[in-house]
Amino acid sequence: MTKKRRKGSSNKIPNLTNTILSILKKDRNQSFNYKQIAAKLDVNDASSRNQIIKKLQELLAKKEIEETERGKFKAVINTEYHTGILDMASKGSGYIISPDFEEDVFISSNNINKALNGDEVEFYVYKRRNRGKFEGEITNIIKRAKNDYVGVIQIHDNYAFVVVNGNKMYTDIFVPINKINKAEDGDVVLVSLESWDKNEDSPKGTVLKVLGKPGEHNTEIHAILAEYGLPYEFPPEVEEYANNLDTSINEAEIAKRRDMRKTLTFTIDPKDAKDFDDALSFEILDNGLFEIGIHIADVSHYVQEGTILDDEAYERATSVYLVDRVVPMLPEVLSNNACSLRPNEEKYTFSAVFQMNDKAEIKSQWFGRTVTYSDARFAYEEAQAIIETKGTHIPEDISITGKAYDTPQEVADAVLKMDDLAKIMRRERMKDGAISFDKVEVKFNLDDQANPIGVFFKTSQDANKLIEEFMLLANKKVAEYIGKQSPKKTFVYRVHDEPDATKLATLQGVVSKFGYKLNFKDRNSISASLNGMLKDVQGKAEQNLVDTLTIRTMSKAEYTTHNIGHYGLAFDYYTHFTSPIRRYPDVMVHRLLQRYLDGDKSANEAIYEERCNHSSNMENLSTKAERDSIKYMQIKFMENHKNEEFVGVISGVTDWGIYVEIVSNKCEGMVSVRDMNDDHYQFDESEYALVGKKSGVSYQLGEEVVVKVKNTDLVKKHLDFTLVGKPQIIEL
């Protein structure tokens, strides 16, 4: 497809009045004469200039503009301007999310004015006739959300265009032929947006990097990372710095720490984990109490502020977990070696140590730097076997060594006692109003070439919950220890706001279709009814849909120095202390905790708030990349199942089609309304359904249907289904 850049003159300018007003409002502090306006419109013929002069006089008579000096005009500003973030829709229009308005403000495609998805923009609003909602016009782009985009390059004789991935980008990017950076036609490239002249259809850009050919595995994975500005390799100087660190355990450093090397200590992690950033220790004291230590890799010992290693870790802010690889926050010499609490190795750790009784009541606590020795490493499956059998035997089929073995009795006893305590702590949390999300995770079995050969579901068992409860305990108690000090000290909190009432009402509308009812009387009633629903839905066809919709109802958790508590966990104080190998906020928490243990004054709040915002943003980008990699792998998996029929649940309904999630593998695709040829289907928003005009047959959210794969597009990450029908109809 060849595209041409439109530029030149016209003797007929559509919507000239609005166009002139838009120009004057955009630069509302400047005055313009008719020649300057003509230049901005890129017209130079006499007819167009006369039209402009005539419209200026009309606007002057209506007092919409004023004449500041002879022949020069500026807009009369009687509107209030606001700022917000643009969220593009797929058809070129969008919505602005602004703190000044409860509802999002609609922006039609002709009022977008070159803003792109995620941009921070200035805008003004006017009443919209349709249902009284607000509509607005963007008047200025304050800050671009991003400058780098991933797309496929189309090369012509003297220029090229990059067709950007995703349905929220309404324009291609024009690239001069001398800035294609050796790209070949059809390559996937990373392009940087450099400028967008007012009279140009498309922005100009430069190709920064050629990522490869569309559809190739590494190309698509690197494209996912590049899309969100996430790196996939460390700069050589950072690798060199990390490799030259002294990672030995020496007596001088040990002398500064609490020595816990003789206390029984072990790790429980996924069987394929390489970075073990937390370990548990267990000891029965003479007074009958249990001393339990939560020991965390002391990353801040190696990653010192002001170094290039710290700068790199901060910029990344998080490890990124894609389906086939981990992009670590720290170089491997630290993440998998020096900081990893591997079995039979001494390590520097930062610890939270608690003395507890049989009722899981805490009688004393201690925080500080330690040196530990891990006596054993378990996979979750191995620890689960101990919990289920209450014995020491680890069967061959779940053993990470590949052979059956017996763990020492004292280790099994420690696991069993901590499981008992964890269950008590979990019950208490639920009683206090915590929300119980045990969402099913989709995992893939991959062959040597990273092709998906199978799908399995990961669920949280007692062993997972044991680790979870003690990590939550450490995070909570560290936050309480600092948060309750007076005078107030700057600290990094992990906060989670209460769910929005409107979103809860929408959720009720959906789940009522399945017979579930929520109670909105007060905070505890909401929590209790949500937990009841999440428990009742387990194992049912609609479970994943209800779980997903409930999570979407919740506010996003984020990092901040301003503590408001954590609604989902029902904690008044909460932080992230337990994963510094993979999360930068945990590194900050370790530094601040040590600072205050040393008796130093409060840190600069503004600096830490900025770091918190950056960490939250990077976490958000990382989550999107992880989701995209799962989506990519699902589509790749479905490529080999094109002639099979699948039972699925309708997971979304729109006026352009229905989204269906396959029950057996959680892959989600779309059935286009254009392909539903047996009737003319209309979208019923109140019923979350597409309804046939003649037959009255409806396809409603949460309903089971049978589908076949129509098309798989690895590049656009689209999975299209053909609707076969409803299960009961097929059986007849």
TrEMBL record:
Q: Which UniProt keywords are present, listed alphabetically?
A: Cytoplasm, Exonuclease, Hydrolase, Nuclease, RNA-binding
GO terms in the biological process aspect are: mRNA catabolic process
Task: List the CDD domains hit by this protein, alphabetically.
Answer: S1_RNase_R
Q: Which GO terms describe its cellular component?
A: cytosol
- Give the E.C. number(s): 3.1.13.1
As for subcellular location, the record says: Cytoplasm
Molecular function (GO) terms listed? exoribonuclease II activity; RNA binding
Name one matching Pfam family. S1
InterPro entries from the xrefs? CSD (IPR011129), CSD2 (IPR040476), NA-bd_OB-fold (IPR012340), RNase_B_OB_dom (IPR013223), RNase_II/R (IPR001900), RNase_II/R_CS (IPR022966), RNase_II/RNase_R (IPR004476), RNase_R (IPR011805)
The kind of enzyme this is, by top-level EC class, is hydrolase
Instruction: Write down the SMART domains for this protein, in alphabetical order.
Output: CSP (SM00357), RNB (SM00955), S1 (SM00316)
Q: Which reaction does it catalyse?
A: Exonucleolytic cleavage in the 3'- to 5'-direction to yield nucleoside 5'-phosphates
The record describes the protein's role as: 3'-5' exoribonuclease that releases 5'-nucleoside monophosphates and is involved in maturation of structured RNAs.
Q: Which family does it belong to?
A: Belongs to the RNR ribonuclease family. RNase R subfamily.
Name of the protein this chain belongs to = Ribonuclease R
Give the classification, highest ranks.
Bacteria, Pseudomonadati, Bacteroidota, Flavobacteriia, Flavobacteriales
